[in-house]
Amino acid sequence: MDCNKVGQLILQLRKEKGLTQRSLAEQLGISNKTVSKWECGGGAPDVSVWNELSSVLGADILKLLEGELAQNSPDIGKIDRIKFYVCSKCGNILTSTGKASVSCCGRRLSPLVPFDAAEKQGNFEGPATSHIISSEITDMEYYINVNHEMTKEHYISFAAYVCRDRFWFMRLYPEQSPEFRMPIMRGGSLYLYCIKDGLFRYGCL
Question: Is the pLDDT confidence value at 65 over 70?
């Protein structure tokens, strides 16, 4: 651990949060002289304060330990580049539209890699026969029906339709019927996430 880099990062983040050394120290239950020592590179925070320091400064503990925050390229706003992440511990669903470091439950998440597939007469057949959809237009909406069981052990967790400039999302739950309505959106892709088999990408409806 480079104490100088860690100290400079703590200083940078503290100022970004509008905190003084005293106010940061009070939130951590330590003396402001200790904070000053960190920022001058004279030592590193004790293990017992890392979690609280990370929370107060709003930074990932690993990044604090490394002493630097890697900046991603600016998001150019292309929604169709969206990436989906699902936490294996709590089931939390997260998204990003550009390069990002995403974590949940203390674990870094990798973006889901969708199974690509081809449409055939309004239906799609994925790696398993339980991932077939049918669609029809009713009342200026798409009505989507998925041939899939919806038990706690095996169900569709979410559906999303992604176009270049817009994004529609719906959460699904066990024991719920695997069907839903969505607005008509041209030129995009439908995604379904199965907790057992992963993310499926369907072509334009």
Answer: no
